[in-house]
């Protein structure tokens, strides 16, 4: 009888120990799960950030690629990012180019210019912007820095390059 | 009863000890992973494009005759050489300083109230043996996070690196 009592109590103690161990393990797993959740939420937000910045970079490149198309590129200098503003200005009047780029909005801005107005035959090149395409719904245009160059008659005439921005929006840019 | 109580206390201390160790290890791993992702200066495509475009713009300095004005990258080279003055009599480095300040203020809104608190433009000439600072132009507070870019200009026998850092609050 005595032997039975000792064995019974020992068994119960062992069970308690196992229960304790199980509780500790469960607590540890919950703790580790919380830490892992925290870590993954941070790394996921970083991935999202990287994806959105990559998308932005892609849009920037797409906008900038426009500058190196034959319709805009300056051929007298070896500069792939230089826009020939005289060429761009001459395209402004040509309606046949409206569907050419498949864009909703296309504008070239002279960052350097103190003027605020749109370029026309009367004020060119002393103006701020050349808007080539402006549809009714233009969305949110993306922009990229470019160099804009034009012929000036000052000092006997030379090609003057200034800092500009090219703005574009449309399916080709936003995708 | 007393022995049982002491044993329970010991187990509690053991459990807390394990939790604390795991928490410390987790915090260290997390700290390293976060620090690894956020470098001090983030590379920016926009600033890279800005630098590339700015280097091509015509300055007011010509060395040989007017209107053979230097481009900004040529002006940096001229400032590095330090051999000649512009026809106007100005030092190429002073023209460089003025031109770059003007370009930056026209392109980005930089002040304490704006998103961009300051900027730092640094140009360094280096060869295999030497490294020489050409010019540093800065404005505002640059102690917080920054976005920047670097471009290289060939200047035989070495290379000139031009770095621009825009500092955000």
Main traits of this protein?
A: 175 residues, alpha+beta, 5-stranded mixed β-sheet, B: 169 residues
Overall geometry of chain B comes to: elongated
Radius of gyration of chain A: 34 Å
Measured by residues with Cβ under 8 Å of the partner chain's Cβ, the largest interface is: A-B, 38 and 29 residues
**Strands in their spatial order, largest beta sheet of chain B:** 1-4-5-2-3
User: Mean pLDDT of chain A, as a whole number?
Assistant: 85
Low-confidence stretches of chain A: none
Give the count of helical stretches of chain B. Answer: 4
Going across the major beta sheet of chain A, what is the strand order?
1-4-5-2-3
Which percent bin holds the helix content of chain A? Answer: 40-55%
Order of SSEs of chain A, N→C?
A: HEHEEEEH
Number of strands of chain B: 5
- The structural class of chain A is alpha+beta
How far is the N terminus from the C terminus of chain A? 84 Å
* End-to-end gap of chain B: 61 Å
Tell me about the biggest sheet of chain B?
5 strands, mixed
Percentage of β-strand residues of chain A? 15-25%
Strand tally of chain A is 5
What is the rounded Rg of chain B? 27 Å
Gross morphology of chain A is rod-shaped
Blueprint of the fold:
The complex is a heterodimer of chains A (175) and B (169).
Chain A: H1 2-67, E1 82-84, H2 85-92, E2 105-110, E3 129-134, E4 142-152, E5 158-169, H3 171-174
Parallel strand pairs in A: 1-4
Antiparallel strand pairs in A: 2-3, 2-5, 4-5
Chain B: H1 2-37, E1 41-43, H2 45-54, H3 72-81, H4 92-107, E2 116-126, E3 131-140, E4 146-155, E5 158-168
Parallel strand pairs in B: 1-4
Antiparallel strand pairs in B: 2-3, 2-5, 4-5
Helix pairs in contact in B: 3-4
